[in-house]
């Protein structure tokens, strides 16, 4: 491994990120703690906010618990810092591979804070500290130009990431007892952690600037025309970048690029610095990785399970499940169900496979039972689109009855689970995104549930996750208009869903054994509570 030229100060960082599952944030503290406790080589640190990983640093959560944070061991070269980051992530991903690591704030104030060792023995005045920071943040503009503007704007409005954001703190003690301080550059978002190439380039670029400021203070004065003079000017500079006034920001960036080529450490880090001055390339690289550390660092390459594993691999399932805490993982999944007969068995079978095979789901799922007589799975998303089962609908009355059923189920699940169902901004593209497209309602046939036949259910979910739309949905024939017909002449599906249930024979109920009768009574209660076809309760009285 080639080691770059060392700086005469240590570089550190504590970038934050969001842990997400099914495009929803999960609690970082809870998730990391249950995933890493008792696992090698992880040891809880003295602060109790994360786990040490070998001698490379630690991974944990910040003060709010909701946000994850990685704290690599400081070093004198960016390459060594990034090597520490990679080692920590490589070990952690073995246990949290099911979760994505998002560098997009998405309304969470996550930052990519960078630390530089203050020269030993120095105690900077406020004026000196502020002057240094104005120089650092002025030269930060090229990185600022490559950040996601929606993400950046929201983060600033939440009170984080302004160009004036920095901190000087006592962080360690030298061997001779001298207090050690660090200058924390808090402007960057966490986006620079998206790929190892960008991470190393960002640390290298900012370290080259910091080196020049503290080691060449006299010559640095030649570059004063790009340094803003006040916080108001700094805010204006940041606004230019956010509003993408390319002509003005590019002029300033070109000057910075010209000046930095004269810096003492430029030649040693030319490749990294040249990359920083390619904001379009950086944006494309972050978008390609979907602002996801797992993808950007290639930790999840070829990690999705095979179809046969999900549907029928009992031996493999049993072997893997013996070594993981499935109960804890299943708690944070956005897979919900009601109490219809055996629906929970199907839901748990689904969750089990997600846990064991680290199945990264794109969608959120809500599962319920449909009445006896409907023998096909019916699937719709919250936006109202059919994903499966439309082929059994023959008439306009059938369609109306099914739509009414799914509308009721959507309302129930929305009330009980409060899923996000509105249109939001996609931070990756900057365009509106309808979350309802990825919230899926699955109606399971009665006979399938009684037989506990999981295979078609799991296969349907596999197809949805792969974006496979059955041809029978695409090539649907026009519906028969039957709204003006008598009730008994309307479509079969309509009649099943709207006809009052027939009574159960009183004598039949008392002929069944006690166990079966209890099951039947439970079925009736569940069906009455959840809206399925239910036998008349008066025939179940003693």
For the structure shown, list the relevant keywords.
542 residues, 23 helices, 5-stranded mixed beta sheet, alpha+beta, 43% helix, 18 strands, single chain
Give the overall average pLDDT: 85
Radius of gyration, in Å, reads: 30 Å
Q: How does the helix and strand content classify structurally?
A: alpha+beta
The total count of strands amounts to 18
* Count of DSSP-assigned helices: 23
Shape: elongated
The largest sheet, given as strand count, sense and whether it forms a barrel, is: 7 strands, antiparallel
Q: In percent, how much strand structure appears in the residues?
A: 5-15%
Instruction: Please give the alpha-carbon distance between the first and last residues.
Output: 81 Å
Instruction: Estimate nothing, just give the exact number of structural domains.
Output: 3
Q: Portion of residues in helices?
A: 40-55%
Low-confidence runs: 503-522, 524-542
Description:
The protein is an alpha+beta fold and 542 residues long. The protein folds into 3 domains: 11-296, no CATH class; 307-498, no CATH class; 506-540. It is built from 23 helices and 18 strands. The strands form 4 sheets. Strands 2, 3, 4, 5, 6, 7 and 8 form a 7-stranded antiparallel beta sheet that branches. Helix 2 (78-96) runs antiparallel to helix 6 and helix 17 (396-417) crosses helix 21 (492-498). The radius of gyration is 30 Å and the shape is elongated. The protein starts with 10 loop residues before the first strand and ends in a 12-residue tail after the last helix.
């Amino acid at each position: 491994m080639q080691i770059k030229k060392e700086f005469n100060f240590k570089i550190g960082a504590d970038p934050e990120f969001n842990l997400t599952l099914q495009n929803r944030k999960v609690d970082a503290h809870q998730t990391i703690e249950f995933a890493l406790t008792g696992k090698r080589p992880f040891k809880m640190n003295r602060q109790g906010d994360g786990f040490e990983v070998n001698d490379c640093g630690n991974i944990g959560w910040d003060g709010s618990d909701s946000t994850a944070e990685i704290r690599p061991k400081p070093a004198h070269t960016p390459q060594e810092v990034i090597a520490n980051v990679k080692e920590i992530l490589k070990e952690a991903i073995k246990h949290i591979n099911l979760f994505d690591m998002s560098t997009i704030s998405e309304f969470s104030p996550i930052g990519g804070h960078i630390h530089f060792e203050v020269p030993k023995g120095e105690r900077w005045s406020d004026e000196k500290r502020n002057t240094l920071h104005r120089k650092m943040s002025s030269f930060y503009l090229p990185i600022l130009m490559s950040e996601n503007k929606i993400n950046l704007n929201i983060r600033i409005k939440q009170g984080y990431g302004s160009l004036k954001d920095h901190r000087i703190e006592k962080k360690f003690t030298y061997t001779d007892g001298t207090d050690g301080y660090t200058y924390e550059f808090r402007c960057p978002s966490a986006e620079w952690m998206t790929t190892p190439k960008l991470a190393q380039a960002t640390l290298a670029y900012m370290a080259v600037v910091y080196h020049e400021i503290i080691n060449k203070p006299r010559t640095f004065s030649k570059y004063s025309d790009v340094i803003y003079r006040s916080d108001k000017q700094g805010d204006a500079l940041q606004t230019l970048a956010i509003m993408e006034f390319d002509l003005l920001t590019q002029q300033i960036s070109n000057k910075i690029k010209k000046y930095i080529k004269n810096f003492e450490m430029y030649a040693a880090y030319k490749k990294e610095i040249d990359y920083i001055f390619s904001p379009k390339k950086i944006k494309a690289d972050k978008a390609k990785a979907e602002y996801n550390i797992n993808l950007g660092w290639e930790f999840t390459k070829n990690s999705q399970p095979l179809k046969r594993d999900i549907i029928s691999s009992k031996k493999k399932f049993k072997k893997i499940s013996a070594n993981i805490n499935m109960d804890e993982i299943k708690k944070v999944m956005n897979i919900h169900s009601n109490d219809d007969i055996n629906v929970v068995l199907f839901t748990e079978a689904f969750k089990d496979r997600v846990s064991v095979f680290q199945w990264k789901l794109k969608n959120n799922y809500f599962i319920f039972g449909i009445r006896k007589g409907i023998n096909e799975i019916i699937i719709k998303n919250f936006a109202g689109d059919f994903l499966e089962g439309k082929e059994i609908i023959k008439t306009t009355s059938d369609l109306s009855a099914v739509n009414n059923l799914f509308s009721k189920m959507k309302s129930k699940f929305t009330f009980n689970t409060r899923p996000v169902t509105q249109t939001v901004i996609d931070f990756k593209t900057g365009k509106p995104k309808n979350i309802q497209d990825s919230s899926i309602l699955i109606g399971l046939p009665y006979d399938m549930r009684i037989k506990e036949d999981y295979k078609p259910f799991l296969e349907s979910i596999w197809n949805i996750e792969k974006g496979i739309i059955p041809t029978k949905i695409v090539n649907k024939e026009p519906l028969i208009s039957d709204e003006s017909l008598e009730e008994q002449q309307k479509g079969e599906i309509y009649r099943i869903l709207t006809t009052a249930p027939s009574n159960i024979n009183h004598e039949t109920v008392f002929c069944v054994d006690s166990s079966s009768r209890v099951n039947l009574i439970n079925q009736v209660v569940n069906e009455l509570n959840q809206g399925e076809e239910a036998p008349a309760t008066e025939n179940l009285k003693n």
